[in-house]
Fold:
Amino acid sequence: MQRRAEPAAALLVACALRIERAALRSGGERGAPDGYAVLRTGMGPRAADLAVARALAGPGGDRTAVLATGFCAGLVPGMNPGDLIVAEETRDPRGTVTCDGTALLAEALARAVPGATVHLGALTGSDHVVRGQERAQLRATGAIAVDMESAATLWTATRGARGARGALDRRGPVAAVRVIVDAPEHELVRIGTVRGGISAFRVLRAVLPAFFDWHRSSLLPRR
Structure:
């Protein structure tokens, strides 16, 4: 008896804010894989934990590719609103999650958003908005950007929600891509915030083709 082929893994793109979800949806879904969905988790690591755990609880959740996205704060001087962050790893107090296919994802983003600057490095998590001296402290740890949900999203996708016993038996790849809206020389409290926000929104609405390319590449046999 011939075994039935397993269905293609779904792609779950997780963001926190209504405006982030609006940007992603306005970019269209041409080329989206079967089972693609945008999940609005709500703001903060706890909300991300709960929303992602629920989303992966159903059949096929162990094979779902999870990509955290949205806006973030850059930590490195010289970064600008609209720059892209591709996480090589995400960090929070629980530990570190290594991301999959980061080089391919960065290349796909360069094609999807011509002219945008793409930074690769560590993306750290926080439970609050980071300002001033705290930026320098986080940068000293080796992180290049910070947000409140990516680390929690990928931790939950790979190891389970807070309080869960044991690790999940997951085979799905994970990644995080963020668009800088706030940087050392472009803090949100300064004049120019609106312009920076518009730049970040335009970039975020253009990234989905790169996410779909990353998902397709993640289904290829690994050598």
About this structure: The first helix runs from residue 18 to 26. The longest strand covers residues 65-74.
